């Protein structure tokens, strides 16, 4: 099968190569999925899971990209819950070969059925932002109706999903980003927008939750904007930022079929939009990922166009 592999962490995306590999086999409780659409999460080439297995042993060449929509072709020994020919979407294990390939072996428990009226491109585009936003807002952020949330990078891939889900949950949403992002963030449903280059972040009202995708100094400054007992949730790794009498949580998104069902249902009902910036084929994916053209929104690789 065709697959994209990486072998050397120091080369980053420039080291991606399109190659031929054997088709994966379905292990116990796995399925093999023929990948129709695939996505990669921004930071995953810097995560250890791309390079070593859980015991710390080199696992290169590894196939990156852990977001997928496709069709089940094989069931492993003892696998239940899914059937051959079923349309699915989901997030694959960070420590296994990923989805920038024609086929991937994945635990059935990581996948949800993809409804017939949702195309593979939209399905793949929902996975990482949908799960990350849901887990950040609700599992880790404990966001409640009537609360106020500050969503950084509100026009971006994760941020735009967080804005929509938070607004729908009845929260007041303050989005941030660059000056040029104002209309996009408001279009996704932010009530208010703070341009981080020109506005003073410290002028906003106190918030119950900060959903951070930027880290660094912005995360630190945001901690002081949180009401007593509130939370700072970040997806950018460990931070010293601490709200007074509150908590800071940094997390990596996990597979969760029930949450995929929630977000895809919202998409079907027109209550949620994907944020797709570009599509490409597997043959052109390496060039697309290394292009100097700045893409706003998710890049989806149409593995089987
Ligand atoms: N831990 C996890 O599980 C997890 C999951 C998903 C994503 N992530 C990480 O979360 C981060 C965001 O991911 P994403 O896919 O949402 O990326 P993205 O689409 O690029 O979103 C980031 C947004 O923030 C804006 N931005 C960046 N720096 C800014 C600054 N200094 N001031 C104002 N706006 C700024 C970006 O604008 P420009 O495009 O103009 O720069 C973009 O609109 C990445 O680091 C990604 O790897 C982590």
From TrEMBL:
InterPro entries on file: ADH-like_C, ADH-like_N, ER, GroES-like_sf, NAD(P)-bd_dom_sf, Zinc-ADH_QOR/CCCR
The keyword Cell membrane belongs to this UniProt entry's keyword annotation: no
Keywords assigned: NADP
GO molecular function: oxidoreductase activity
Keyword NADP: yes
Domain Enoyl reductase (ER): 12-301
UniProt-listed SUPFAM superfamilies: GroES-like, NAD(P)-binding Rossmann-fold domains
Domain of life: Bacteria
Stored PANTHER family: QUINONE OXIDOREDUCTASE
Protein name, UniProt field: NADPH:quinone reductase
């Amino acid at each position: 099968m065709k697959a994209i592999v990486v072998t050397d962490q120091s080369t980053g995306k420039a080291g991606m190569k399109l190659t031929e590999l054997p088709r994966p086999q379905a292990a116990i409780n796995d399925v093999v999925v023929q990948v129709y659409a695939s996505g990669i999460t921004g930071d995953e080439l810097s995560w250890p899971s791309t390079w070593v297995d859980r015991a710390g042993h080199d696992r290169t060449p590894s196939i990156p990209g852990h977001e997928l929509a496709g069709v089940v072709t094989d069931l492993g020994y003892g696998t239940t819950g899914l059937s051959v020919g079923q349309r699915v979407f989901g997030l694959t294990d960070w420590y296994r070969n990923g989805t920038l390939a024609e086929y991937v072996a994945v635990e059935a428990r990581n996948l949800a059925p993809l409804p017939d009226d949702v195309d593979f491109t939209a399905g793949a585009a929902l996975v990482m932002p949908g799960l990350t936003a849901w887990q950040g807002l609700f599992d880790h952020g404990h966001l409640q109706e009537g609360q106020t949330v500050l969503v950084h990078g509100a026009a971006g891939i994760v941020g735009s999903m967080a804005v929509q889900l938070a607004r729908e949950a009845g929260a007041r949403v303050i989005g941030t980003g660059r000056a040029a992002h104002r209309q996009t963030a408001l279009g996704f449903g932010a009530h208010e927008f703070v341009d981080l280059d020109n506005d003073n972040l410290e002028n906003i009202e106190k918030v119950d939750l900060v959903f951070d995708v930027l880290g660094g100094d912005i995360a630190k400054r945001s901690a002081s904007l949180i009401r007593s007992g509130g939370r700072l949730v970040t997806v950018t790794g460990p931070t010293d930022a601490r709200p007074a009498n509150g908590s800071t949580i940094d997390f990596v998104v996990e597979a969760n079929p029930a949450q995929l069902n929630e977000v895809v249902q919202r998409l079907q009902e027109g209550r949620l939009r994907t944020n797709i910036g570009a599509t490409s084929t597997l043959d052109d994916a390496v060039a697309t990922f290394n292009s100097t053209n700045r893409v706003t929104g998710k890049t989806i690789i149409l593995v089987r166009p």
